[in-house]
Every structure is written in structure tokens, then in C-alpha cells.
Hints:
Layout: H1 2-18, H2 24-40, H3 45-61, H4 70-85, E1 97-101, H5 108-119, E2 125-130, H6 137-148, E3 151-153, H7 158-168, E4 174-179, H8 187-200, E5 204-210, H9 217-227, E6 232-236, H10 244-253, E7 258-262, E8 270-272, H11 275-283, H12 288-298, H13 304-308, H14 314-327, H15 330-335, H16 344-362, H17 366-370, H18 377-387, H19 391-410, H20 415-418, H21 422-428
Parallel strand pairs: 1-4, 1-5, 2-3, 2-4, 5-6, 6-7
Antiparallel strand pairs: 7-8
Bound molecules: guanosine-5'-triphosphate and magnesium ion.
Magnesium ion binds next to α5.
Amino acid sequence: MLEALSEKLKNAIRKLLGKSVVDEKAVEELLKELKIILIEADVDLGIVNNFIESVRKKLFKEKIPAGFTLRDYSIKIVYEELVKILGEKAYEINGKKIMLIGLFGSGKTTTAAKLANYLRKFGKVALVCLDYHRPAAPEQLKQLAEKINVKYLIGSDAYSVAKESLEKFKNFDFIVYDTAGRDALDENLASELKSLAEIIKPDEKLLVIPAEIGKVAKSQSEEFNKLVGITGIIVTKMDSSAKAGSAISACVATGAKVKFVCYGEKIDAIEKYDPKRFVSRILGLGDLETLIEKAKEVVKPEKTEKLIEGDFTLEDFIEQIESFQKIGPFDKIFSMIPGLSLPKDIIKKQEDTMKKWKYIIQSMTPKERKEPEIIDESRIKRIAKGSGTSEEEVRNLISQYFKVKKMMKSFGGMKGLSRGNLQNLLKQFGFRV
Length: 433
Ligand SMILES: Nc1nc2c(ncn2[C@@H]2O[C@H](COP(=O)(O)OP(=O)(O)OP(=O)(O)O)[C@@H](O)[C@H]2O)c(=O)[nH]1
Ligand SMILES: [Mg+2]
């Protein structure tokens, strides 16, 4: 199952993130683990090796951009290189006439109905049965079409139905053609598909491949492409095979475009294939890329020098709070951090606390912000009143500030934080991550 693969990948990443020090050795351990996981998931060895080499090259032979720690950057690169082997771009369906082709039982008929149902949102759709080899095929298509309430055409032989469909559905936006399957792509199937394509002149010839064939998808898509030509691929049964990633990467390796994936028998179990979303999902990264980009934007490197000295005032504290808030709402930030799940009420509480801290610091005089040591009981009273908080809350903030200051000295100042280390940023605000 895809979830099992996903769980293994997530664990490997969690392991790296949980390390106190992320160095070359730690990344190598991650790579070793990823290699085993991908090979076990049936991904082609050549593809796996290229993937590992590209990650290594980017992390150890090229310069790590400013604003990143090795910890963040290694996850970013693993993510990007996985996206590369899984297709990089999302593709559209182009045109009106869509022919589905593929071997026996790959899911053509079911997928034809799912696709018709999906395309209904964009225009008028018709389903056409071109499978008159399997006696039950026309009835299967008829039932599916009636279930989703779209127009359909069935007849008694594929060629005349193909011709008739062009006239009958000429005012439709989409015509989805279901064709017959075979055990293998033999001469008969190839010549039937070619003749049908000559009549229909399809805009799309989509090869339907079940995920369970894994890396064999490469030879299958190459063969179909050579003999009848394909414009894209639909991978079905993603829900019932751990080889989904393998099948997709095998197709991508041939240069084919995976356009849709199906992950169940239900009519709506189809979605446009988007490699970025797919990889984020299996790695459990949420929207990590966006988060890293945003964190980089708000944590400005030029502040680093001063802060490295441990010269961290309450003014810097408030600035950090503000940049943290700029990244986004708290629960969103947390959902984007791999391996981190905190109860919603704790997140909310921390968010409220930070808001209060901001008011408290804003109620201090510039001198108090620079030298919090001078804040005595009477000043605390005044600040609490001015910020609408309690004296206890003011005391808490000051004590938190001194703790952070001490912690930063021992961690070598704000260096780690300023390079975009989210974990440190969170620690600063009292999260145990
Ligand atoms: N779990 C799961 N089952 C699927 C999926 N797609 C299709 N199936 C099942 O796979 C079986 C074969 O599907 P069909 O759509 O009949 O396959 P086909 O390619 O038209 O088969 P032939 O016409 O005999 O070549 C059916 O039992 C479907 O319900 C999917 O995404 N997930
Ligand atoms: Mg069929």
C-alpha cells in the first residue's frame, strides 16, 4: 500500500529531524535508508542511484544557499529530487476526443467512467464503448454511464461505433472512448487500436496502467508508445499497491506524461496527477517548500552579525515575534513542519501568549527594551497596566527572555536561527520541538 511506503519515508525524515546535529554523516544515513525504502518499493535501481547521486551532489558538492541549515536543505533537496523522478509538472487533458488504451483488467472501463464524471465539470461529456471482444463490456459501460448520468454509445462493432460517435457527439465538449484489452500488446491489438485511431483521430491516447506492475510500467509504456503512440498515462489502483511510486517513476523515465491517478473503485477516486503534491503527501511534508521560502524571507541574514554576539534585546525579541507571525497562522505553520504535531489548544495558547508579549514589549520604554535588567516591581506594574496584561504575565515574559538569551549564548547566538532553522525559532518561543 502507498501508505506503508509513505510511513517509511516519513520515519526516515523524522529520524533526521530528530537528530541534535545534522552533518554529512547524518545525511548519508538518511540516503542509505531512502535507498532501501525505494528499492523495496520496486523503484528501478538506476533511477534510485541517480536520485541518491543528485541529492549528494546538491548537498555536498554545491554551495548551500544562505538562509538554510543542512537540516532544512537536505529535506528540501530530497523533496525536489523525488519530484523530479516523479514527473515535475502537472499536465492537462488537451482536446476533445480521449481514447483509453491498455491491457486486460488495467482499469480502462472504470477509468473511462471516472474521467467522464470528472470532465463533466468542464463541459458536455459522452462515453463510447469500443470493446466488443469481451461480451460483458458494453453492459459494464452502459451501467456506469447511467450511474453518472452521461450520454453513451454502444453498438455491435468497434469501427462502426467509432464512426457513429463522431457524428452523434459532434456538439459535445469531450468524448471518452473505452477500448478492448488484451493479455499483451500483440499485432491484433496494435492494428485494431491503429485503425480505430485513424477513424477517430483522438486528441489524447491515454495508456491505462495499474500501479501493481511497478517498474514494468517502463517497458509497457515504451511498447505502447512505439506501436500505437500515447499522449499520456493514467495510473490506476494506486490504493491497492505499494508500487505506485515505482510505476509512476518508470513512466516518467520514458518521457511519458502521467496525467491522472486513480486510487479506488468509486467513481470519484480519480485525480489530476501533480508530482509536487504527490511527493509532499508521501513524505508527510505538508507545504514544506512554501514554508521554507517564507521563513527565508522573514529571517533576514543581515541581522545575524549583531545577534551572534548574543546581543539579544527585547527589541530583537519583538522583531522575531513579528517575523514569526508573518510566516502565517500558527496551526498552518505547524501543519507544514514534518514530524511535528501539537494539540490545537496548545498551539492556540502559544499564539495568544505571543500576542500578549508583543503588547507588553510595546508598553516598555526604549531603555527598558534595551536593558530589561532595570525593570523592577514598579515598572512591572506600569507595563502590565499599559499593555492590559497581568503583572504575572510581564514577569513571565522577562523570565522567558532571559532564558532565551542564555540559551542563545550557549547555542552560539542567533546563527542557527538566522539561517532559517525553524526548530530553533520554535524553541525560542517555548515550544519543545
Ligand atoms: N482498487 C482499485 N480497483 C480498481 C481501480 N480501477 C479499476 N479497478 C478495478 O479493477 C477491475 C478491472 O477494471 P476494468 O475497468 O473493468 O478494467 P478494464 O481495463 O476495462 O478491463 P478489460 O476491459 O477486461 O480489459 C475492476 O474490478 C475495477 O473495479 C482503482 O483505482 N483501484
Ligand atoms: Mg474494460
